[in-house]
Amino acid sequence: MKKIFITGASGFVGQHLLPALKLEGYEIVALSRKVRDTSSGVRWVLGDPLEADDWQREVDGAYGIVHLAGEPIVGKRWTPEQKKLLRDSRVVTTQNLVNAIAQAKQKPAVLVSASAIGLYPKNQETELDETTRPADDFLGKLCQEWEDAAKVAEVHGVRTVLLRIGVVLGRDGGALARMLPIFKLGLGGPLGSGNQWFSWIHVADVVGLIRWALASESAQGPVNAVAPNPVRMRDFAATLGKVLNRPAFLPAPSFALNLMLGESAQVVLDGQRALPRAALRQGYSFRFPNVEDALRDVT
Ligand SMILES: NC(=O)c1ccc[n+]([C@@H]2O[C@H](COP(=O)([O-])OP(=O)(O)OC[C@H]3O[C@@H](n4cnc5c(N)ncnc54)[C@H](OP(=O)(O)O)[C@@H]3O)[C@@H](O)[C@H]2O)c1
Where is each DUF1731 domain found (predicted)? Predict the structure, then answer.
């Protein structure tokens, strides 16, 4: 049985990934900073990916590594301390994983490491694909450092896939779970101007892309994990209202979001029009290419 070692498996994406990998017959070992219930057929290892420690031994002999751990980007204000935690919980954890790979006698075949479309420039009409250069802002630099740390695994002969994830849509986590209660009350609407592009992906397709990246020898390097049809924020809000059968024209103005969220408001206010060119070129077929179908499934 092939072993997969996962960090951040207790999170939003991880909770969808675990059952899918179990169904595929992988042996799953998951790292968490908290004691977790092992009855689900997952072997949980207690440890902090920010610290070099015993957990690193689990990398030896694994077929694949999936790295999803990271302090949530939205939620807390980006104080200097929070920015350091956002960075270290991604960059230092990746370095610890790659150091474990360097030391492993039996090295993994593949590392699938999360990244984000936050790498790219914001607020542009331009289509962003895997060849677009990183932005010179906080998220751009963070994602570049995160990916650079992961790419060191290639030196050790490990096929490395950098999943640049867009806004993940699922009922039970991420941005949509925050928006749904407001929209269900009929009080939802576009965030900010509404004109900005919104690069979304159904959580089933994030799971699909991780499974594909683990299994497909041709998957390598940066891969945008976004649906092939991004939409403008105003159309996203209108579609969400339509599938919920609720009005959705009350805009949340930028100044209010900036007040509430501080600099982290840029994640929802600054649009990005990202396309999954690498995944499509390499043969990945999206389960949810269109936003209305995706929203009908998750609401
Ligand atoms: N969801 C999205 O829309 C989205 C978009 C773009 C990129 N991504 C990236 O994809 C990855 C997975 O996303 P997700 O939404 O599943 O993440 P999540 O639910 O916010 O968190 C994943 C896990 O990371 C661990 N973690 C949280 N804070 C940490 C810290 N300070 N230090 C070390 N570990 C920490 C936690 O595991 P334990 O508590 O069990 O240790 C948590 O369950 C993340 O790296 C995220 O940045 C997500």
Answer: 252-298
